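TICKET: design request
STATUS: open
ATTACHED STRUCTURE:
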């Protein structure tokens, strides 16, 4: 498995991963996002998009990186990750997160911040903690899940050469 820059020909595979995740409404604050809106969000309005692929160049997951805020807050980046449901638990998200930190450093970012990690997404919360992220804030009842309102975390990590 390797992580490489996104190519436009990867979009159908990335969309096939994003669509069920976003439409499930369990981890991202989207539900009925269109393909055009998803492309704009994941590809067009970011600094860079990457994909994790297997030895046959099949897309297993994707992430993007972008400044968390404009101008005076642009030294901290934001990133988001999606993994194909059939590839979960195989280290894809971990590899992408480690890669994203290296990519962020190369782009000149000093820290990475996740603004909205749904508290019930325990797999992600635990992985980000394992990879050195800290919960620096909690937003009560920030996410409307199928089971009611749940909290969201703000997670942060100062970046350094890995």
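STATUS: resolved
RESOLUTION: sequence designed for all positions
ATTACHED SEQUENCE:
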């Amino acid at each position: 498995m390797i992580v490489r820059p996104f190519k436009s020909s990867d979009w159908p595979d990335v969309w096939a991963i994003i669509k069920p995740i976003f439409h499930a409404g369990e981890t991202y604050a989207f539900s009925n996002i269109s393909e055009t809106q998803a492309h704009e969000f994941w590809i067009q309005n970011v600094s860079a998009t990457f994909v994790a692929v297997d030895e046959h160049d099949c897309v297993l997951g994707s992430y993007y990186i972008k400044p968390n805020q404009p101008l005076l807050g642009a030294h901290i980046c934001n990133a988001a990750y999606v993994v194909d449901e059939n590839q979960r638990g195989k280290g894809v998200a971990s590899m992408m997160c480690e890669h994203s930190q290296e990519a962020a450093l190369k782009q000149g970012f000093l820290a990475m911040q996740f603004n909205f990690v749904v508290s019930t997404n325990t797999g992600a919360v635990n992985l980000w903690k394992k990879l050195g992220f800290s919960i620096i804030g909690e937003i009560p009842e920030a996410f409307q899940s199928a089971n009611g309102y749940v909290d969201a975390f703000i997670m942060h990590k100062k970046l350094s050469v890995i």
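CLOSING REMARK: The chain is about 30% helix and 35% strand. The first strand starts at residue 2 and ends at 5.
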